[in-house]
Amino acid sequence: MDLDGIANRQKKEGRGQADPHDGGTAAADTTHGSMDGSTDQTDRATGDPFKRDACHGITGGYGFALVCLLVAFLVRWSLDVYLNDALPYTTFILACIIIAVYCGVPASLIAVALGGLCSNLFFVNPRYELSLTGLLDRAGMAIYLTISLAAIGLIQTWRWAWRKTEMLTRDLNHQMTTKSSTNE
Question: Which of 61, 96, 97, 130 could connect to 103 by a Cys-Cys bridge, CB 3.0–4.6 Å?
Fold first, then answer.
């Protein structure tokens, strides 16, 4: 059976496909997770590299995102003596990547915005003002946004492909099991 046949069979059985644009917040397959975003024991056993257990609390990942941004800010602040105005966005890019891996799209987009504002306010001259006065400042912000948004897109595509592969593997295993049991 080809991939379209598997997808059609899943629709008939009431198992939909996970939406690649939902940030992984709702898993459509009942063996993978429930619609409220909680995961069951079978999800923990799959070996999914994109576990988001840190983001399944009441805050839905936004608390974890704020903690990551705070750590990024404190690291950059402690390095400010050595870096001065150089590399104002680096720690915030790393924080956005971590947030994208563990919390999904909405929290990571908010982290990109807050990280850009925070780095502009505290680490770009003139300090303590929201302004991009020079060409280098504007180019730095453009590079920060490009890298952060591209990383979020790449991570979400990877997460979608991983889940799609797991779904297809489960279906093929199910087909092989049913065929072998009918042949006996």
Answer: 61
